[in-house]
Design a protein that fits this description.
Organism: Salarias fasciatus
Family: Belongs to the purine/pyrimidine phosphoribosyltransferase family.
Distance between the termini: 38 Å
Pathway: Purine metabolism; IMP biosynthesis via salvage pathway; IMP from hypoxanthine: step 1/1
Strand content: 25-35%
Pfam family, one: Pribosyltran
Largest sheet: 7 strands, mixed
Number of helices: 4
Strand order of the largest sheet: 1-8-7-6-3-4-5
CATH topology: Rossmann fold
Subcellular location: Cytoplasm
Radius of gyration: 17 Å
Number of strands: 10
Length: 215
């Protein structure tokens, strides 16, 4: 079972005025729940775990856009540093896919995969899927089903966040950064209708902001 850092349901988080938060978001957030520095430290450890498990193989890192791009970039920087500063290294190539399953703050049963026509080149490859958050798990299960049709040699999934929710299908990634409460989180490229991707910390969105940015 994957190890992770658990953020408790009663975690109070941190006051916004203790951190650098863009002024245009100050009234939209309840609190900082995972500071940027903690994200980076945990990401560094995930990179080490991944290299230990998959380091004997050429890895194709598949970024799930858009929310996963920041975690993807930072994770690959740490993997690159390990490649440059150890006696053994692993070839690493990248690819991208976009998956959409949200309308406002609700995860829908309608999972849209964009870029799937290019996945046939993953046949026989060792694939690392890099995701920002797993909530119900159905989106990832849909993506895994699609990828398995391409006959990769191996598929591993790393997700920065896994949400504790009664809506979960029971799916768990191979590598997990943080297990988080059932709240709507934004920041570090996690968005609400495309807003808040430019926020460095992971924060809890307040109810007023959900109405303010609703489409």
């Amino acid at each position: 079972m994957a190890s992770f850092l658990q953020i408790a349901d009663d975690e109070k988080g941190h006051e916004l005025d203790l951190f650098c938060v863009p002024r245009h978001y100050e009234k939209d957030l309840d609190r900082v729940i995972i500071p940027h520095g903690l994200i980076m430290d945990r990401t560094e450890r995930l990179a080490r775990d991944i290299i230990q498990d998959m380091g004997g193989h050429h890895i194709v890192a598949l970024c799930v856009l858009k929310g996963g791009y920041k975690f993807f970039a930072d994770l690959l920087d740490y993997i690159k540093a390990l490649n440059q500063n150890s006696d053994t290294s692993v070839p690493l190539t990248v690819d991208f896919i976009r998956v959409k399953s949200y309308c406002n703050d609700k995860s829908t049963n309608n999972v849209k995969v964009i870029g799937g026509d290019e996945l046939s080149n993953l046949s026989g490859k060792n694939v690392l899927i890099v995701e920002d958050i797993v909530e119900t798990g159905r989106t990832m299960q849909t993506l895994l089903s699609l990828l398995n049709e391409c006959n990769p040699k191996m598929i591993k999934v790393v997700s920065l966040l896994v949400k504790r929710t009664p809506r979960s299908s029971g799916y768990r990634p191979d590598y997990i950064g943080f297990e988080v409460p059932d709240a709507f989180l934004v920041g570090y490229a996690l968005d609400y209708n495309e807003y808040f991707r430019d926020l460095s910390h992971i924060c809890i969105l307040n109810d007023q902001a959900k109405e303010k940015y609703k489409v």
